């Protein structure tokens, strides 16, 4: 039982990282209907910016987190402006291929610049104590991850539902043309979406580095894909869905690892994806939309 | 054989291919071509088969599949099992690899081909990953350390497979079934309304594409001495995708030209793998920004998948754009 709860806690920590990345996927997909493959690499860049801020600039965890989020926000907007904006009216496949190209470019550009060797994240920058609740030991890092993710998700909910830009984002994702007619600056709104999503990915990168202590230029691929699975699981384009999907996927993976299938862990996410696409393509929280001819 | 020979320039092309392959064989035997060029030639052949098979799925039928390395992996491993574990001859392995990959295509195609566009892309990507992880976890085929395979891929086998692949796919494209597939690419709903069994044709194209990817897998496994699950990750799928996209979605000749030229480029850049990937990705982005139809696909691509928006003119695809 204790073992089970322990795994559950691990799963929730991992899941909240997935959820943070998935939010960026789902927001971007909701607004421009593009699977932003480069999102996982923004996550990687965030992890590296956090790493360099801690080691070279000698900053603490929270300043590093903020710098990483800000830099990733700018990076995300740059990607959108350079690569995706000219393709807004192109075919979906052209946009998807561009996204793949951007993703490969960031990965191998990073390898080209700094080499492929991994880096060890500095530990002990935040004094953490582990908690013991009902005999279950919860590490300080898990609590930190959870706290940071929940805080960011609350901020995101606030931005989306209570601010002007959030309202514009919801309007554009509902109907881009109508939003344009209503005087909403669609380009800025899309850029803001990329900025917010990328900032969350950057935060996820720093938190991931703290938790797993090893970062490398290709680290974004698998978490990125899994976060996309999480977004689809929750219903793509739906913000609470991404959170729920991320947490659920993290828990499922942790339970599979606990059941002895740690080598199969990566396959589980994709099996979940194929099952959800076959049986409930709109996702757990999504509604089925009838296709118009 | 009759339908093959009817195609324009069939015998001319075949005799050219025969002359080319005989001459190359002599050059290889005589040692004029060193192993570097021989390896490049073999890679080109395998990549042509892969590009042609993915061209059928993406270019002709319009189903955006990015898990093609999964079929390659199935073919490679099944053929390796057939020759190394069961001790059967190489031709059996090629056929077995194709059939196994086709079965995998059938199993994955029937449920996922109900999905469209992005969702299909992600589902096939997931399938490719699952295949890789399954082989990673089977000790019978060596797990993560991989499986050693003897070198059995010879030049005549390679050329024969390339020619058969291109012939079958070109003829399929020009047949009734191929036309049905093109109609699905152009507008699936309209094709459905015209009484075309879209699911059947999508699965058919998928299975044929998977079959030839499996054949390529057999050639690949028996060419590179060792197969490892890491060789068949999604980067491999993207490598194949790049060939089809740069060649022009819907253009067979484009896929073949892209397979030849990109393989040559990447062979010369093989000492600098990062540079190669940076260049690949930049080419991909720039291509999509300035020439989204690819090198060869000109008019046939403008109406590609623009559902309900094909005001610029109808389908322009004609078989004359294709080689062989």
Question: If you had to describe this structure to a student in words, what would you say it looks like?
Answer:
The complex is a heterodimer of chains A (293) and B (324). With 293 residues, chain A is mostly helical. Chain A has one domain: ABC transporter involved in vitamin B12 uptake, BtuC (Orthogonal Bundle). Helices cover 72% and strands 3% of the residues of chain A. Chain A is built from 11 helices and 4 strands. In chain A, the strands form 2 sheets. A two-stranded antiparallel ribbon of chain A has the order 1-4. The radius of gyration of chain A is 19 Å and the shape is globular. With 324 residues, chain B is an all-alpha fold. Chain B has a single domain, classed as ABC transporter involved in vitamin B12 uptake, BtuC (Orthogonal Bundle), CATH 1.10.3470. Chain B is built from 14 helices and 2 strands, in the order ααααααβααααβαααα. In chain B, strands 1-2 form a two-stranded antiparallel ribbon. The radius of gyration of chain B is 19 Å and the shape is globular. The C terminus of chain B is likely disordered. Chains A and B meet through helix 4, helix 9 and helix 11 of A and helix 6, helix 11 and helix 13 of B.
Identify the quaternary structure here: heterodimer
Low-pLDDT parts of chain B are: 298-324
The sequence of SSEs of chain A as H and E is: HHHHEEEHHHHEHHH
Structure class of chain A: mainly alpha
From the spread of the alpha carbons, the general shape of chain A counts as globular
User: Would you state the CATH class of chain B?
Assistant: Mainly Alpha
Could you give the count of β-strands of chain A? 4
- Kindly provide the radius of gyration of chain A, computed on alpha-carbon positions and rounded to a whole number of angstroms: 19 Å
Strand percentage of chain A lies at under 5%
C-alpha Rg of chain B (nearest Å): 19 Å
Helix content percent band of chain A? over 70%
Biggest interface, chains and residues, is:
A-B, 45 and 44 residues
Name of the CATH architecture of chain A? Orthogonal Bundle
Strand order of the largest sheet of chain B: 1-2
């Amino acid at each position: 039982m204790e073992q089970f709860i322990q795994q559950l806690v691990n799963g929730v920590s991992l899941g909240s990282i997935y959820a943070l990345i998935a939010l960026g996927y789902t927001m971007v997909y909701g607004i421009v209907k593009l699977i932003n493959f480069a999102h996982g690499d923004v996550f990687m860049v965030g992890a590296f910016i956090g790493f360099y801020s801690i080691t070279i600039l000698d900053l603490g965890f929270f300043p590093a987190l903020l710098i990483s989020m800000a830099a990733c926000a700018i990076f995300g907007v740059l990607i959108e402006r350079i690569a995706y904006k000219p393709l807004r009216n192109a075919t979906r496949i052209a946009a998807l291929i561009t996204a793949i190209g951007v993703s490969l470019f960031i990965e191998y550009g990073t390898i080209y610049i700094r080499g492929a060797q991994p880096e060890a994240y500095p530990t002990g920058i935040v004094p953490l104590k582990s908690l013991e609740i009902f005999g279950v030991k919860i590490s300080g890092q898990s609590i930190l991850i959870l706290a940071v993710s929940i805080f960011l998700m609350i901020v995101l909910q606030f931005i989306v539902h209570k601010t002007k830009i959030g309202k514009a984002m919801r309007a554009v994702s509902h109907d881009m043309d109508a939003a344009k007619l209503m005087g909403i600056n669609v380009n800025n709104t899309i850029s803001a979406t990329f900025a917010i999503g990328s900032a969350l990915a950057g935060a996820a990168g720093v938190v991931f580095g703290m938790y797993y202590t090893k970062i490398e230029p290709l680290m974004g691929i698998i978490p990125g894909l899994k976060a996309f699975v999480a977004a689809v699981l929750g219903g793509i384009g739906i913000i609470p869905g991404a959170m729920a999907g991320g947490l659920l996927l993290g828990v499922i993976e942790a339970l599979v690892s606990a059941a002895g299938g740690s080598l199969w862990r990566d396959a589980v996410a994709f099996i979940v994806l194929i099952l959800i696409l076959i049986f409930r393509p709109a996702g757990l929280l999504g509604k089925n939309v009838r296709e118009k001819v | 054989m009759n339908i093959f020979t009817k195609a324009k320039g069939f015998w001319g092309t075949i005799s050219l291919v025969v002359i080319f392959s005989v001459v190359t064989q002599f050059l290889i035997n005589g040692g004029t071509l060193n192993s570097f060029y021989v390896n490049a030639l073999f890679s080109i052949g395998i990549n042509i088969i892969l590009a042609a098979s993915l061209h059928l799925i993406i270019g002709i039928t319009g189903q955006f599949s990015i898990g093609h390395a999964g079929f390659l992996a199935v073919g490679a491993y099944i053929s390796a099992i057939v020759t190394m574990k069961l001790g059967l001859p190489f031709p059996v392995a090629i056929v077995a690899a194709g059939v196994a990959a086709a079965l995998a295509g059938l199993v994955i195609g029937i449920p996922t081909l109900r999905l469209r566009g992005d969702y299909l892309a992600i589902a096939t990507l997931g399938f490719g990953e699952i295949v890789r992880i399954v082989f990673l976890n089977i000790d019978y085929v060596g797990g993560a350390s991989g499986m050693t395979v003897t070198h059995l891929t010879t030049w005549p086998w390679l050329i024969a497979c390339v020619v058969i692949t291109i012939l079958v796919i070109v003829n399929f494209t020009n047949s009734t079934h191929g036309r049905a597939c093109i109609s699905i690419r152009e507008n699936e709903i309209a094709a459905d309304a015209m009484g075309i069994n879209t699911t059947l044709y999508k699965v058919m194209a998928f299975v044929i594409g998977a079959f030839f990817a499996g054949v390529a897998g057999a050639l690949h496994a028996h060419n590179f001495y060792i197969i490892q699950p890491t060789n068949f990750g999604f980067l491999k799928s993207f490598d194949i995708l790049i060939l089809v996209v740069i060649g022009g979605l819907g253009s067979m000749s484009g896929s073949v030209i892209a397979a030849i030229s990109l393989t040559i480029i990447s062979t010369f850049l093989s000492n600098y793998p990062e540079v190669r990937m940076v260049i690949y990705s930049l080419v991909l982005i720039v291509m999509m920004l300035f020439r989204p139809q690819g090198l060869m696909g000109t008019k046939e691509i403008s109406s590609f998948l623009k559902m309900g928006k094909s005001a610029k003119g109808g389908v322009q695809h004609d078989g004359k754009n294709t080689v062989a």
